[in-house]
Every structure is written in structure tokens, then in C-alpha cells.
Amino acid sequence: MHVAYGAMTDTRWTPRLWGALVVLCAAMFLDALDVSMVGVALPSIGADLHLSDSALQWVVSGYVLGYGGLLLLGGRAADLLGRRRVFLVALAVFAGASLLGGLVDSGPLLIGARFLKGVSAAFTAPAGLSIITTTFAEGPARNRALSIYTTCSAAGFSLGLVISGLLTSAGWRLTFLMPVPIALAALLAGVKLLPRQHGEQRASGGYDVAGAITGTAAVLLLVFTVTEAQGAGWLSLRTLGSLLLVAALAAAFLLIEARTAHPLVRLGIFRSAGVRRANLTALTLMGAYAGFQFVATLYLQRLLGWSALETALGLLPGGAIVALSAGSVGRLLDRFGPERVLPVGVASMTVGYALFLRLDEHSGFAGLVLPSMLLIGAGFALAFPSVNVAATSGVSDDEQGLASGLVNTALQVGGAIVLAATTAVLTAGTGGGTDAHAQLAGYRPALVLVTGATVLGLLVALTGALRTARRKPEPVSVPDYRYAPLEAEVLSER
To answer: Cα–Cα distance between 29 and 125 in angstroms, integer?
Structure first.
């Protein structure tokens, strides 16, 4: 029986094991932080670098494009080349790209730096998650580790606006430079704390070059098309042609994966109902959250007249709940399992989004923002770790990078698609008007879309809970806790 590195019969972890987890959490925090942190700084960036609104959009989209488009390739590279190696190299690239972004004086260079950061995150995210899932034995130990890890990711995304609001007041370049020392510290600590794992179980076989090209091109083009559709028009020849090309690339990818001896994505992984449900739920989970954050930010600043810092602080309660929930969510997952915890989290977020539909010209923090953010924050704290645990449970060690890449791809692509659709609905609703009535006419249907997307995710998650409820209890067996040689280094420190 294969036992994951670090598995032990009690709940105590060695200082080295904690240190490795902190390194992985720091990288994931930075990856998620960069998705949301640049938003508040955009007006300052545009004014300083003389960028148009269409060009400014790519400061955000460039990162999402690199991140979402290359996650599958990053996950498979971790399986084939070694998770530690891929993680450390990509983290070094992330630090360099962050420094470049904070020093450039050119819009195209800034967008290029953002794209490069997204590419590096596409390799650190699945490599880091698969290190977690192959280091901690499936069950309480892995649930606890994943709860802490994914809470750091969710906290990074949730707190991005707050941190950006504070840094932008001193200068927008600080939002790009702030991750540099953290990434370098994590890199140096990772070299020392992440084990080389000479006995690491890697995926066998060669490289699926054709699959990598078609699969990566399909995801990149999909994210690009959805991002650009608002400006080009959803029914324009350019958008429809791009979507047709995406479908052709996707079909070619599936055909290649079904026939190649060593596929980039083994299609058999989707035979797991848990993996399918987790990825479908992840699509709506991050998509709805990104759409809500976009609408809420515009509403608070444009209609209610809040400053960037006030907006960041107004959204802080949700992020604070996520940041403080690491230990408790792990215990809930141990007791009830991700299939039961996930729908509770998604339901809480759905109610939070629905409550925000009460927005009007005179809404206040206590009556509107606070109750919604408390529900959304609590829901995100429950749902985000649950979806990651569900997406990697029951997957063999040599495919943990693949499973991690799949769920991260679902999160990023879902965010891009739902955000683009939310933006299109909002723009159509306002009709170009700037008065309060016109703005509300755009915000409300956009929030209806966000709420509807979450309802879809809730229905998918509920199927897992119902299936678990009908499942017959399995006989309890005593786990085999024999340690492989790989554990000796960490265990000797106890």
C-alpha cells in the first residue's frame, strides 16, 4: 500500500512539515492575490502609463489568460518532471515577473509581465496542490492540510482588493513589487524545506506534444475570446469564428487524448463522479464570486461614491472569515466529508448574492453589504477547500498534478466566462447611461446572473450530497501506516 509522505498515526506534524506547508501556502496566496489585487490600481495605472480602457483591461486579462490557459500543461509537467522542481522554477519566474511589472514604464511590457506571472502561477498552483495531496495521506491529515492551503488561496483572492486599496494610496507600483520579497523568501525556504523526494512516484511514459498544443491552444483561445467578446460583440463574426475554432481544437484534443499512449489528460479520470462534480462546481463557484466582486466594486464606488479604500474595507468581512476559518473547516471536512460540506457553502454564497439584489441608491454598509459579505465569506470558506478535496480524492499519486490542474483550470476558466457574461449583462442593462437609475438597471440583472450561476453549482453539489446519503456505510478497516523510506527525513525530526 502506498503511503503518502508525511502520513502518521497521530495529528502532530513536525516543524519541517509545517514549514513546507507554509511555503506552499505562501505561493498559493500570491497566485490568488494577483488575480484580484490589481483591480483597484487600474485607474492609477491607466493615468500613469496613458493606457486606454481596452488596453487597461489586458492588465487583468493577461494574467488570467496565462494562468487559466496553461494550468493543464502545468499540472502534467509536475507529474512528469517532478513537483518540487516545477514548483521552485515557476516560483522564481513569478518573483522575476513581479519585479519587472513594478519597474516598467510601458503598457505592453506591463501586460507582458502580467502574462508571464500568470504562466508561472499556472505551474506553481497544480505543482503545489499535488505536493500537498501526495505528502499527506488521504483522510484527516490531507483534509487539514488542504483546508489550510485552500484557505490561504481564498484569503489571497478575497483580501486582494483590501491590500490593493492600501498600497495604491501610496503608489500603484507597490501592488506589483509587494509579492517580490514574499516570493523570494518562499523560494529560499522551499529549497531547504521541500524534500527532493527521490522516490517520488511520477507519471510514466513520454510527452503528449500534440495534446499539449491543442489543449493549451483551446483553453487560451476560449479565455481570450470570452474576454474580448464584450468589445467585439457576442454575435460578431470574430467571436463566433473564435468559438468555432475553440470547438474544433477541443474536439481534436479529445481525439488525440483518446488515442495517444501517454495522454496529457487521461480521459478516464472523468469516470469519477466526484471529480466531475467538483470541477463543474468549481466553474460556477469562482465565476460567480468574480462576477459579484466586479459588480459590487462598481456599485459601491460609482453609485454610492465610496473611495477605493472604503470599498476594500467594506468587502473585508468576507475575506476575514475566509482567513480565520482554516482549522475549523478541516475538522468539518473530517466529520462530514466534502460532499456534505460543499453544498452548505455554495448555498450560503447563493443567499449572500440574492440579498445583495436589494441594492438601491441609498443602501448602507450595515443593511446591505455586511450581511451579504458575511454569508459569502462563510460560504467561500466552506466551499473552496471542499471543492479542492473532492477534486483530488481517490486520484492516484501519479495523476495528482493532473487532478490539481483540472480543478484550477475550472476555477480560472469559470471566472473568465462568468465575469465576461456579467460584464456584458451589466453593460446592456445600463445602456450607456450614468445616472443612478441606469446603473441600477445594469447592476440588478448582472447580480441575477451571478446568483443563477451559483444556483447551478448548488444543484451539482447537491447531487454529491444525495449520493453520499444513499451510500451504504463501508466496513471500517485499520489503515496501513508503514512508512516508505521517503518519510524518514521528516520523521527523524519528531
So the answer is: 10
Q: Is the pTM of this model over 0.70?
A: yes
Residue from 26, 37, 143, 141 nearest 87 by CA = 26
Under 8 Å between Cβ of 5 and 197: yes
pLDDT of residue 6: 41
CB 371 within 8 A of CB 476: no
- Domains of the chain: which residue ranges? 15-207+262-491, 208-261
What is the fold, at CATH topology level, of the domain defined by 15-207+262-491?
Answer: Growth Hormone; Chain: A; (1.20.1250)
What is the torsion angle, in degrees rounded to the nearest 10, for the CA atoms of residue 191, residue 194, residue 196 and residue 199?
Answer: -170
Selection from 276, 356, 373 nearest residue 316 by Cα? 373
For position 481, what pLDDT does the model report? 32
* Average pLDDT by stretches of 10, the chain with 494 residues: 40 82 90 76 82 72 79 80 91 95 90 92 87 80 80 74 78 90 94 71 62 82 77 85 94 89 79 86 89 86 82 82 76 86 95 94 89 94 88 77 79 80 81 79 92 94 81 43 33 36
